[in-house]
Amino acid sequence: MDEELSSRSGLIISFAPSHLGSGRATTLTRFWKLARAIEPLIARLAAERADAAAVEFIESCAAKMKESKERAAWDEYLEADMAFHFALADAACNPILNQFLILLRNFLRQIFSTGHPANPAFTSPDDHAQVAAAVRARNPTAARDAMERLLSNAEYQLRAMAQVGLAFSRSAAPVSVTEEPNR
After folding, report:
1. Which of residues 127 and 180 earns the better pLDDT score?
2. Phi, psi dihedral angles at 181 (to 5 degrees)
3. DSSP for residue 12
């Protein structure tokens, strides 16, 4: 049976794409729950500890995501997205947090090996840019809050796409997400 995840946004999400099987879907849900707990901490620490070079790299990853989205270059988008999160973890100067992201990245690569969310509704370069701006401003609270919004929006988008069976399909048609998550 699929495990449900209740977020701060008030949404309940169940990741259960049919090609995953219940064990992998449950593992994805558990990783997502960890990400919701850990990634805001990573963003907060990055805002406190990032040097100038790290801030520039974080911003360049967010810019690459925006540019990749505009060109519909989804493989590049996903690579820039992962690089963004790793750059934050590196800037947080905590190797344990970086190890968590390595585990998550490896698991997500398994999940997306048969396809990925090649869907404009799933992208969030603006949310990532807000995290980057808070890190540049050295504002730990704003960085944490921006990451929580990013993850809340991503969770909402995954839920909306999973409901129509498109979340993990390379050939999926764009999904229009019309409702906003509760903030």
Report:
1. 127
2. -65, 155
3. E
DSSP 3-state assignment of 164? coil
Angle between helices 95-111 and 21-49 (to 10 degrees): 140
pLDDT greater than 90 at residue 140? yes
**Nearest 10 degrees: CA dihedral of 37, 151, 45, 28?**
50
Q: 13: part of which helix (H) or strand (E)?
A: strand 12-13
DSSP class of residue 172 equals P
Q: Which residues of 96-119 are buried (b: 16+ CB within 10 A; e: fewer)?
A: ebbebbeebeeebeebeeebbbbb
Q: What kind of fold does domain 26-163 have according to CATH?
A: Four Helix Bundle (Hemerythrin (Met), subunit A) (1.20.120)
Quick check: 33 and 7 in contact, CB under 8 A?
A: no
